[in-house]
Amino acid sequence: MQYNFKKTRLQDCMETNKEHINLLKTMVENKLNRKPISPSDFEISASSIFKHTKEYISPKTLMRLWGYVNEPTVPRSTTLNILARYLNHRDFNSFIEYLKNDNEEESKFIASDFIRSEKLDKYAKIELRWNPNRRCVIIHIGNSQFEIIDSENSKLKVGDKFKCSNFVQNEPLYIFDLETANNQQIDNYVIGCKSGLSSVKLI
Asked: pTM above the 0.85 mark?
């Protein structure tokens, strides 16, 4: 019987790195502030990765890696390296070393106020506050999209629209697909990047 050493070695490597690859994907989703679930999501993700790294991964490659298309494949090291660089690591091996050396807890319970967009009724209103003395009131207009209806001391203005999955007190707020009232498009934006949101509440 012919023994395919190369194929077996790749399979073993895949099994060894499977957990690391899953963590890589999760952290990429966190930075993208989205879990890709449609072709357009993968196109947006590929664009964001290219904008940050100046290196291109095709949407179809991302679809295969995320299991959106039924084409089992061993991820190329080039793909994993680019995704690692998207997370500000030198390459995938450096990302693995970071995971091994990271002494912080990877998981924790969220004790602060927490709102999930998918659980909100349409037209639900949320008041957000963050330092220094920033305040916004937003309204849910459906499908995790929000419009700003009141703004104080913030670069975000009334009429701006964006998408967001979660609102967590004491954590930064990552929003995407920001469309300003004057029709300017911004892929990603972070609110309260230093100290997070000081207040999150339904009103």
From this structure: no
